[in-house]
Amino acid sequence: MDKKCVDYTLYLVTDRELMSSEKLEDAVFDALSGGCGIVQLREKNCSSREFFDMALRIKRICREFDVPLIINDRADIALAADCDGVHIGQKDLPAEYVRKIIGKDKILGVSASNIDKALEAYKNGADYLGVGAVFPTSTKTDTNSVTIEQIAEIKKAVGIPVVAIGGIKKEKLCLFRGTRIDGAAVVSAVISEPDIKKAAEEFKVAWRCVDV
To answer: Dihedrals φ, ψ of 160, to 5°?
Structure first.
């Protein structure tokens, strides 16, 4: 997969505890059917073997849509399941070492909450940045707050895609107009909705106000 052709507009992050469907595979399929352009498998409460098996199942679905599958935190799972990349936070292994582990062809995403961390990640081989949390979120409680102005500043400073994260709903997307960010990472805004496909479609439509 060409890393430069990834559509970050709607970046789905999974959470089995929040999804409206019974099976994760169904939730991901519906989100992809609605226009999701990248998926991050983020499942904290499972064994390594369960995570690996889950990654294989979700990867098959992502391949149907030619959409990359990113593994949260676990570079070993990403490599073992031959997924498209890994996303790391500031408390995980440093980006420069993760890049050495996964090689130059895999996608490396890094979370950043300020411009210094963003520039460091960019320097050390990140392919994209997840910047936030912008709004309060229940899915991740150990995050620092980032303003929309700070996100715009980070976008100007780095030469890679920037994805906003943290409590983002479609109704708030117009607040990002003029920031030139590349997308938004969401959990409950899509995966918790009764009609996941429709929620993804509506999010993509709402995103148009950002590009104005």
So the answer is: -130, 165
Q: Which of 140, 169, 172, 198 is catalytic?
A: 140
Contact partners, residue 176, CB within 8 Å, separation at least 6: 148, 151, 164, 184, 210
Q: 87 has which bridge partners?
A: 72, 109
Going by C-alpha positions, the residue among 56, 9, 57 that lies closest to residue 35 is 9
Q: What is the tally of structural domains in the chain?
A: 1
Of 41 and 43, the one with more pLDDT: 41
**pTM, 2 dp:** 0.95
Active-site hit among 42, 74, 99, 197: 42
Domain range spanning residue 15?
Answer: 3-209
**What is the bridge-based pairing of β-strands 38-41 and 162-165?**
unpaired
Question: Which CATH number goes with the domain that contains 115?
Answer: 3.20.20.70
Please say if 177 is a catalytic residue.
no
* Residue whose structure tokens are 């890393």: 3
99 is known as an active-site residue: no
180 is catalytic: no
Number of H helices, E strands in the chain: 8, 8
- Check if the beta carbon of residue 68 is closer than 8 Å to that of residue 84: yes
Which tens digits make up the pLDDT trace of 108-162?
A: 999 999 999 999 999 999 999 999 999 977 666 556 789 999 999 999 999 999 9
Q: Which of 59, 74, 106, 111 is catalytic?
A: 111
